[in-house]
Specification:
Helix content: 25-40%
Number of strands: 20
Largest sheet: 11 strands, mixed
Number of domains: 2
Strand content: 15-25%
CATH topology of the largest domain: Rossmann fold
Bound molecules: adenosine-5'-triphosphate, 6-O-phosphono-beta-D-fructofuranose, magnesium ion
CATH class of the largest domain: Alpha Beta
CATH architecture of the largest domain: 3-Layer(aba) Sandwich
Number of helices: 17
Structural class: alpha/beta
Shape: elongated
Length: 533
């Protein structure tokens, strides 16, 4: 029989008589749990703690909640409250009595249901990694009147945050009869520095029609201890956390602390990012809305440059480390001649460089539209501006304005060096594409995310992120979505589609060109020093 291994930080404080390190089998999931008992009076407590710490450091990431099965089947499961509170009672799901849901053929998802991470397989390939399927379960671990939930939003804005807030509130209330829901204001720091607001279906009724976040947001200020103290003091037992990769790391830290303190608190993460840079999930909410809104800016650029001689339009879109918005906006528009993203470094001068391409398009068509992701070409701007690498309150690198830099470089090159008059229009709609309400399909997506999170928390799952994997909503261990960032793969078919549609240079010679440029600059510097001496 195959067993998986999982580590749990502590056991309830009354268990002084238990050994300092002990093992037990979690039958339901066929897993071996290793517990550390910090209250143990046993004499070998010290060495056990050392062993536990070593296991935690070296083994936990690899083995936490992993179950294996026949044919190479792997389930990367999420934690459950009963992992560290084994005696929790379960109750029948109140959805059984709901008139709306009673007619659903398969009202509950089975605890055996899983979602495959990889959907394209071959006859003999192993079954591979799976995640727990999201949805309502027959048993819940909270009674309706026992729940005190809270919702917090952190990081940058994204279309659809208000829909997620609305649907968590309405989902908890309409499906599970929960009436005690609190809003934490202004991001993580709101837990310990602000009063809460009361959220009811009536209060949130119209918020999905507005952009932004009804609860407001912030960067920085994550203090795990203070946050969990506040959760404990306020008697909160379900925490819904909406935010990007940084926020999800914060959610993981809150979960760990909750687990360490042995609290009956379900921690659910709902991934949010306009950049679509969250790993594992198909797509992040608000992304489609942002791509759609970007079309308006691209269209404006096209109209402008088409109406003048030698028109050069530059549209800067969001995308710190991932160029998904720029790539999808380009593919959708068909008016874009060149798309520049952080994953594909570009160069200006020489053969197959950007200047050569612009000149070619101006000669052919009389105009050119360039879409630029804000994170692209940062190395060029940094070199010119001697940047000091400023960071925001969360520690994210602050980007330099690549749009302004590129506009200036293009103007200088064509007017000074090529003696060509150009008409350059720089459009910067960065915040406009994320400060709008979500479109219809994102609204539905947000509803499913919120409801999946509610079902998961009610079923006692915790320390999870929810999201669609191959179109099926799943509960994903938080570490899975924070360990890597989703970026555009230049070797994937989608980037090839873009190159084929724009016919832009691939900049594959980037390293060679940049090395030659650096060598040339060094030689020039040496020559000019010699001359001046
Ligand atoms: N490693 C971490 N551990 C704990 N908390 C973190 C960590 N990284 C970030 N946070 C907290 O998460 C919150 C949001 O982080 P950040 O500003 O990076 O935005 P984000 O969630 O990544 O969203 P986005 O990048 O889409 O705007 C902040 O309050 C920050 O303090
Ligand atoms: O909201 P801020 O702090 O200006 O940060 C902007 C950044 O946030 C993001 O929108 C991600 O949320 C990035 O695309 C962008 O670089
Ligand atoms: Mg982030």
């Amino acid at each position: 029989m195959e067993l998986s291994v999982s580590l749990s930080l502590s056991v309830p404080s009354h268990s002084r008589s238990l050994p300092s390190l002990f093992f037990c089998r979690r039958k339901k999931h066929n897993a071996l749990l290793i517990f550390r008992n910090p209250n143990s009076t046993s004499r070998n407590c010290n060495s056990s703690t050392k062993l536990f710490n070593w296991l935690q450091k070296n083994v936990i990431t690899a083995l936490n909640s992993i179950q294996t099965g026949d044919g190479g089947f792997v389930l990367e499961d999420v934690p459950h409250l009963t992992d560290f509170l084994p005696d929790l009672p379960a109750y029948p799901n109140p959805l059984q009595k709901s008139t709306a849901y009673a007619i659903v053929k398969q009202n509950f998802v089975s605890t055996e249901d899983v979602v495959a991470k990889k959907i394209v397989v071959q006859k003999n390939s192993p079954r591979g990694v799976h995640f727990r399927r999201a949805g309502p379960q027959e048993k819940v671990y909270f009674e309706s009147d026992e729940v005190r939930a809270c919702i917090v939003t952190c990081g940058g804005l994204c279309p659809g945050i208000n829909t997620v807030i609305r649907e968590i509130v309405c989902g908890l209330n309409y499906m599970y009869g929960v009436e005690d829901i609190l809003g934490i204001e202004g991001g993580y720091k709101g837990f310990y520095s602000k009063n809460t607001t009361t959220l009811t279906p009536k209060v949130v009724n119209d918020i999905h029609k507005r952009g932004g976040t009804f609860l407001r947001t912030s960067r920085g200020g994550h203090d795990t201890k203070k946050i969990v103290d506040s959760i404990q003091d306020r008697g909160i037992n379900q925490v819904y956390i909406i935010g990007g990769d940084g926020t999800q790391k914060g959610a993981a830290a809150i979960f760990k602390e909750v687990e360490k303190r042995g609290l009956k608190v379900a921690v659910a993460g709902i991934p949010k990012t306009i950049d679509n840079d969250i790993a594992v999930i198909d797509k992040s909410f608000g992304f489609d809305t942002a791509v759609e809104e970007a079309q308006r800016a691209i269209n404006a650029a096209h109209v402008e440059v088409e109406s003048v001689e030698n028109g050069v339009g530059i549209v800067k879109l969001m995308g710190r480390y991932s160029g998904f918005i720029a790539m999808f906006a380009t593919l959708a528009s068909r008016d874009v001649d060149c798309c520049l993203i952080p994953e594909s470094p570009f160069y200006l001068e020489g053969q197959d460089g950007l200047f050569e391409f612009i000149e070619k398009r101006l000669k052919e068509n009389g105009h050119i539209v360039i879409v630029l992701a804000e994170g692209a070409g940062q190395e060029h701007v940094a070199r010119i501006m001697h940047a000091v690498g400023e960071k925001d309150a969360s520690g994210n690198r602050l980007l330099l304005d690549v749009g302004l830099w590129l506009s200036q470089e293009i103007k200088d090159h064509f007017t000074k060096e090529r003696k060509m008059a150009i008409n350059l229009k720089y459009i910067d709609p960065t915040y406009m594409i994320r400060a709008i309400p979500s479109n219809a399909s994102d609204n539905i997506y947000c509803t499913l995310l919120a409801h999946s999170a509610v079902h998961g928390a009610m079923a006692g799952y915790t320390g999870f992120t929810v999201g669609p994997v191959n179109s099926r909503h799943a509960y994903i261990p938080i570490a899975r979505v924070t360990e890597t960032q989703n970026t555009v793969k230049l070797t994937d078919r989608m980037w090839a589609r873009l190159l084929a549609s724009t016919n832009q240079p691939s900049f594959l010679n980037y390293n060679k060109v940049m090395q030659e440029k650096a060598e040339k600059e060094t030689t020039n510097l040496i020559d000019s020093t010699r001359t001046s001496v």
